[in-house]
Amino acid sequence: MLPSMPGAVAGIGTDIAVVSRFEAAFKRFGLRFAQRILGPGELQVFERRRARDPARGTRYLATRFAAKEAFSKAIGLGLHSPMSWTRMETLNAPGGKPQVKLNGILADWYAERFGAAHVSVSDEKDMVIAFVLVESKSA
Fold it and tell me: Which residues form the 4'-phosphopantetheinyl transferase domain (predicted)?
């Protein structure tokens, strides 16, 4: 059975990032760098992945950064308030599907203007990509 059709598209965004830039920044600034980008749920996942495999942790950080950039483009704000890196999280559902979770004033601002948000992230060696589609608010 196919899922129901989404509402009209209100915005799309995409972003590509180079993993080595995140490796360099993390080496320079340490955990503070990750804390500036990741929301609370993402930070927990990052720390677990990094503990098992530092390269996997860095790719996670890069994909989440790309998702935040793509989301900010899809909603038309860039990184202007109420959008901030830590207020938008990309967390995986139990089956692994990435999902958008919004925090704080961004969640309220978004709910007044838009419907569902869909996110996809992918990584390959030194490159990551994220794509976000934001639906119009239902009538």
Answer: 11-114
